[in-house]
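So, can you check these C-alpha cells?
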Amino acid sequence: MIPNQTPVLEARIERWPIAGSFTISRGSKTEAVVVVAEIRAGDHVGRGECVPYARYGETPETALKQILSLQARLAAGLDRAALQALLPAGAARNALDCALIDLEAKTAGKRAWDLLGLPPPQPRATAYTLSLGSPEAMADAAGRAAHRPLLKIKLGTDDDASRIAAVRRAAPDAQLIVDANEGWRADNLAANLAACANAGVTLVEQPLPAGRDAALATIDRPIPVCADESVHDRASLAGLSGRYDAVNIKLDKTGGLTEALAMADAAEGMGLQVMVGCMVATSLAMAPAMLLTPRARHVDLDGPLLLAADRDHGLRYDGSIVDPPDASLWG
C-alpha cells in the first residue's frame, strides 16, 4: 500500500450475458453474475472479481455484504495475511485478495508474479467447455469445436456413455476432459469410467457427490479422477487420500490467489496433479489464476470464451491459447 494514503474499498455486482446458455447437471444459466471489488489508494486501483456460487451457500448479495464489511479494517491497514483469518475461503475473500495483490503490484511498479516471487506465466492452451445436452446437441457442439486441442464435456445423466461416444466421434483428435459435477452414482461409476477410458478421456472431474465419494477408493480408476466440489482449500486436501488423483484449484473456492498458491504446494506434496479451473466470468477473474498455470497439468480458464462479450483489456485468446494478462487488466 502507499504510505500515508488511506485505501478506499468499493464493490458492486455485475451481470455479463452468456453466449446462448451454459448447462451442467445442476441446471442452466444465461448470464454470469460476478462481484467486483476495487481498492483505491492514491492514483492506484486494485481490482478483483469473484463468482458467488449457490452450491456453496453464496449469493452475489451476501458476497457483496462480506466484502463491504471490511471497509473500516481496510482503511486501518488490512493486508492479505490478516484477510485470510477474517473471511472464510470463498468468493468474497477471493475478490479482496486479488484486489490487494493487484494494488500491491501497481504500487510497487511490478508485475504480480515478480511481486510474489513466481515464474512468469506463459501462453497456455485452455480447455473449452461443452454444455450438457442431448448426445446429438453435444456432438454438434463438439464438431464446431473440434479444432480446439482440449475439450471439457459437462455430463451427469443416466446416459452419459452415449454422450461421451458422440463427442468423441465428432472431435476425434481433441483431448477430452469429463466433468460430471457430482452427477454420477456409485452404481454407475465403474461403467462410466470405462466409457471414458474407451473414448480416450484424459481426466474425469468430480464424478460423485462431495461427501458421498467413498466408492472412488474401492474401485480401479482407469484414468485420473480430479476433485472439484470435494476440495476447496488446504484444509480439505486430507480427505482426498485414496480417492482422487488430481485437484481442481479455483480461486473462488480457495478464497483467493494467496491460498491457491499454498494449496498447490500442499497438493503437489501429496502427489496430486494440479488443475487450475474457473467459474464462468470475465477476464478479470481469470487473470490471477494465470499465475498458477506454470505448475498446472490441466488449464481450464475459458470463462470469457463463453460470454457474449468480455470486459475491456481482457485476456487475449488465440483460439484456445490464452496469454498472460496485460497490466491494464490486472497484476
In short: The longest strand covers residues 8-24. The radius of gyration is 20 Å. The longest helix spans residues 91-108.
